[in-house]
Design goal:
By secondary structure, the protein is of the alpha/beta class. A 5-stranded parallel β-sheet has the order 2-3-4-1-5, with helices on both faces. Helix 1 runs parallel beside helix 2 and helix 3 packs across helix 5. The two termini are 19 Å apart. The C terminus is likely disordered. The chain binds adenosine-5'-triphosphate and magnesium ion.
């Protein structure tokens, strides 16, 4: 997933949606040149959030810069395993690295079903990166009301963060070749997957 294989106009989109996707693309490109603060991509399944986040990460990697790309539910699995309240582990190398890495990408934020303990760790991570103004990209399907208040208050802080809602349909469905196939997928409801 790179900028080169992302179509900033989407597939057969009305002009308003083309502009929205084009702006998301430009924002991602600008950020990839010089990561500063946070970019949060919000939007429905398949709108291109992960692709743009991964393109940012790949761009930085190509320049030889360190990047961590983490899918949040996987990260929480890891934290749950390492930081059980009854565990003797006092420090976790991976967690410390993720806290400090120059660019962190958190994909699928909010998809996590987790314990309060792991949630607390996730909050610590976000709060640490907020306090130290460390660059981060977050993707989420959630609306603001669905995100924990103490996290959202950081995400909406315009001094550090740009929150961008990508308002285009699922690319997976729209790139299906047959109109009939598209209708089938749409018929399954808003969060349709084609596999
Ligand atoms: N504008 C685009 N140009 C080219 N490919 C795209 C575009 N938008 C999405 N895709 C492709 O469609 C698929 C779904 O996109 P992506 O994974 O970025 O969606 P998402 O918003 O992260 O969805 P989810 O919320 O389900 O994780 C990927 O294979 C991605 O490469
Ligand atoms: Mg995604």
């Amino acid at each position: 997933m790179t900028f080169e294989n992302f179509d900033p106009k989407g597939v057969n989109l009305p002009i308003k949606e083309q502009r929205n996707l084009g702006d998301a693309y430009k924002l991602a490109r600008r950020f990839a040149e010089e990561p500063d603060g946070w970019v949060v991509f919000q939007g429905r399944n398949g709108c291109g959030k992960t692709h743009l986040a991964a393109a940012i990460g790949n761009y930085q990697l190509q320049k030889g810069k360190p990047v961590f790309f983490k899918v949040v539910p996987d990260l929480l699995d890891h934290l749950r395993a390492t930081f059980r309240p009854d565990s003797n582990v006092t420090s976790d190398e991976l967690f410390e690295k993720i806290k400090a890495v120059p660019l962190l990408i958190l994909d699928d934020f909010g998809e996590q079903a987790s314990t309060p303990w792991a949630q607390e760790k996730l909050y610590q991570l976000i709060s640490h990166r907020y306090n130290d103004r460390l660059p981060m990209v977050i993707t989420t399907c959630l609306s603001l009301e669905e995100i924990e208040l103490r996290i959202i208050s950081r995400i909406v802080d315009p001094r550090i963060s740009v929150l961008f809602e990508i308002d285009v349909p699922d690319y997976r469905a729209d790139s299906l070749p047959l109109e009939e196939e598209r209708r089938k997928v749409r018929g399954r409801g808003g969060h349709a997957r084609i596999w």
